[in-house]
Amino acid sequence: MKKALILFSLIGLMLGLASCKRAEVADPDWNSPVGFNVLVEGSVSPATMVIDGRIHTSQVVIRVTNSKGTPLADRTILLQQLHSPDSDALVNWGYFQNNQSSYQKATDANGEIRVTFYWPVQYYSEEMWIYAVLMIDGRAVKESETGNIGNIPQDFISLTMFRSGSTSVPETR
Q: What are phi and psi of 161, to 5 degrees?
């Protein structure tokens, strides 16, 4: 009985040690839930602006990292303007560099992009959103085929607009 117990213990120990050979986890395939491995975070400064008929600017900063916080260089980010994060309706209220309503840029060595956003000169709504999405294989999609947007590396950045008391620009929606 003791011999059988010792023999089973040795066999279990050998099998346990032999099965633990994996040293690192490979990145998932792009068609899998990559949102768990790649993080897109954005901010804008200033995020609140008075719409007074003049052009004002904000700096948009987007950072792309892996799940360990390591910056990811040479990743293309697409920026678009949305009326709300729940809508697919693109708006053309303000513009990015080169008078573009949407903008693409690759991340630098720090995994960041910095883009100037030019606010609208006319009041449209209380808020608008800048949608930042990681482009994969040259495309940017808001939803996956299953309709789950949680797996796409993306961020929605809110901008708040206030109408200036000195302008008489009508509100349009």
A: -115, 135
Rounded distance between C-alpha atoms, residue 112 and residue 69, angstroms: 13
Q: Residue 163 burial (CB < 10 Å; 0-12/13-18/19+)?
A: middle
- Residue range 30-49, pLDDT digits in tens: 555 554 578 899 999 999 98
SS3 of 7-53: the string is HHHHHHHHHHHHCCCCCCCCCCCCCCCHHHCEEEEEEEECCEEEECC
Asked whether the beta carbons of 38 and 66 are under 8 A apart, the reply is yes
Quick: pLDDT tens for 115-151: 999 999 988 888 999 999 998 877 776 555 555 555 6
Cβ–Cβ < 8 Å for 159, 49? yes
- Terminal Cα-to-Cα distance of the chain (whole angstroms): 84
- Supply the pTM of this predicted model: 0.70
- For residue 96, how many other CB atoms are within 10 A of its CB? 20
Query: d(Cα 63, Cα 42) in Å, to the nearest integer?
Result: 6
Longest dimension (CA), the chain: 95
